[in-house]
Amino acid sequence: MSIKTISKPMINQLMTVSQKTIPADARINNRMLIFNYLFPKQILSRAMLVRKTKLSKASISTVVYEMLEDHILVESGQESKIERGKKGTLLEVDANYWNIITIDLSQPCLIQGAVVNLCGDILKRSEISLYKSTDANCEKIIEVCKTLINNSNNHILGIGIAVPGIVDNEGKVVRSSNLQWENINIKEELIKHFNCPIIVDHDTNSALLAERFFGNGVPNTIFIQLSLGVGASILINDAIITGINNSAGEIGHITVDPQGPDCSCGKKGCLETYISAETLHRKMFTSNRKPEDILAEAGNYLGKALTTTINLLDLTDVVIYGPSDIVNKVFISSTEKAIQEYGPYSPKHPCTVRRCTCNNDITLIGECISVIQNRIMHL
């Protein structure tokens, strides 16, 4: 991972670093590089890591020693078979020392939390049901975190909070229309109660991390999440694009029709008012129209909204996460058809749209990865 000195970096590099970098960043980048080859459940020797990473034996030895001392990695026996020389000691991610507390605020009328180990396995859960989504607040989040910490048997590496909205680099929620939050410094509030690092992220970025590491994610993609609202996350060469204002991917508040329905952001006719999971479920349950027609129309709206971004960045992979009764064949094919109709003709590498392969824990697991990434940099 590259460490930049600017206060608001536009790119947040993932742990999918696959090449050596400049000397000034070598230690951190090499830690990320080694962790990436072992995460979540790969087992490799030091010699194997040398071959895969192209780092020197000395570099591998030094970095692995540090990561063993930090309980990020653990030695797990020896190679079973080797052609010549002595058997190498095997390494894997240490799943038994650290736990991470993750919170997902993206679900309607619910605060979800989990205790997760360094391999992304959920060990414990806790949640609080809400009368309405806007009832979510710091006090309830703190309550869920305390319950989870009390149920954890290991050391706490950090707490990660995934929020549907714009989050700055200091952990402040600049704006969340769906939660009706504005300039809420959730990190500052949690630090008063917990003696561990607090990480706050955009929920769709967290979900994208899980898709990249546990699904069929590729280094260049646009990830769409239909949940409480509509969010997007853009991955270019394994780097999440965040933007100067940390608002890259706020596709839900693109205006589709200036005369359309009122949106929670204060505008009219935002994409979110047409295709959010809540909106589509309401239409499907109350309208006389066929569900297939409603979903085909929603997919067309999404495809049109995505066309400019896809064309500018030359993306060919669109991943959509949402309820299975919404993100189905009808919705996906309608989205893909709109992209092909309104985008440039590209017979060699056409853009494909697919359903996310991860389950409903995608945001909790993705936020775990975000915390790991942050802590590997700073341990």
TrEMBL record:
Q: Which domain of life is it from?
A: Bacteria
InterPro entries tied to this protein = ATPase_NBD, ROK, WH-like_DNA-bd_sf, WH_DNA-bd_sf
Q: Which family does it belong to?
A: Belongs to the ROK (NagC/XylR) family.
Q: What is this protein called?
A: ROK family protein
Origin organism is: Gardnerella vaginalis JCP8108
